Amino acid sequence: GIQVEQSPPDLILQEGANSTLRCNFSDSVNNLQWFHQNPWGQLINLFYIPSGTKQNGRLSATTVATERYSLLYISSSQTTDSGVYFCARVPAGGSYIPTFGRGTSLIVHP
Amino acid sequence: NAGVTQTPKFQVLKTGQSMTLQCAQDMNHNSMYWYRQDPGMGLRLIYYSASEGTTDKGEVPNGYNVSRLNKREFSLRLESAAPSQTSVYFCASGWGGITGELFFGEGSRLTVL
Q1: Which residues of B19-43 are buried (b: 16+ CB within 10 A; e: fewer)?
Q2: Interstrand relation of A69-74 and A19-25 (parallel, antiparallel or unpaired)
Q3: What pLDDT shows up at residue A98?
Q4: Residue B110, SS3?
Q5: Strands B102-104, B4-7: parallel, antiparallel or unpaired by DSSP?
Q6: Looking at residue B7, what is its pLDDT?
Q7: Which distant-in-sequence residues (6+ apart) come within 8 Å of A58 by Cβ?
Q8: Long-range contacts of A23-26 (CB under 8 A, 24+ apart)
Q9: Is B88 in CB contact (< 8 Å) with chain A?
Q10: Which among A1, A81, B62, B93 is least surrounded, fewest beta carbons within 10 Å?
Q11: How far is CA A89 from CA A81, A82, B65, B69, in A?
Q12: What pLDDT does B41 receive?
């Protein structure tokens, strides 16, 4: 079954708008990571966040492991925020292999 | 500080040809991974190596082989390339286990004609 589900699949914003991206996971996790894939294809680590809240500039993330979801907040979006955002989770047991959601594609218009 | 380095970055093959994608990391990580990325599919795990000397199949291993040459290097081989293997390939490394934080290379774009 689906282990990592991201929403929305697509998002279009005007520069300056705020947005929330969601990642739901179907089982207990040891950790959760958020990545940004820029238009050149590079995967950039944003947050490593098994639980709680972290902030880095205009971006912040919250993981509520007991309720099996994580949120990525982007405030005052800029055109450079465009790209695809992925979450990846490591399960609490088994082989500890990170698995990915299908991503949220974000376009920020000037 | 190179992090994770993949070569080549681009490759065009004909059906049936073979090739090897190379990956090296300089972070002394235990675990290394090969993913493929196709439009709308996210990243899917091909093979991984939890530690030096071990390799295991991931979600989509058919048509691929891997070698964990040493702690730094993990290569992916296509013995007889097929058009279905046209994709972008990413190598990643991490400490593995319950920590699981991943660090990615820049990707290798492979086209099989």
Answers
A1: bebbbbbeeebbbbbbbbbeeeebb
A2: antiparallel
A3: 83
A4: strand
A5: unpaired
A6: 96
A7: A74, A75, A76, A77, A78
A8: A23/A69, A23/A70, A23/A71, A23/A72, A23/A87, A23/A89, A23/A101, A24/A68, A24/A69, A25/A68, A25/A69, A25/A70, A25/A89, A26/A1, A26/A2, A26/A68
A9: yes
A10: A1
A11: 22, 22, 25, 27
A12: 80
Cβ(A94)–Cβ(B34) below 8 Å: no
Distance in angstroms (rounded) separating the CA atoms of residues B32 and B55: 9
Q: Give chain A's residues under pLDDT 70.
A: 1-2, 92-95
Structure tokens at A58: 């205009």
Within 30-49 of B, beta carbons closer than 8 Å to A belong to 33, 35, 40-45, 48
- How many whole angstroms separate alpha carbon A18 and alpha carbon B31? 36
Predicted pLDDT at B77: 98
| CB-CB neighbors (< 8 A) of A105 in chain B | none
Q: Best mutation site among A2, A5, A10, A100 for testing chain B: the one with the most B CBs within 10 Å?
A: A100
Point out the residues of chain B with pLDDT beneath 70: 1, 98, 100
| Chain B residue nearest residue A5, CA to CA | B42
* Residue corresponding to tokens 């594609």: A105
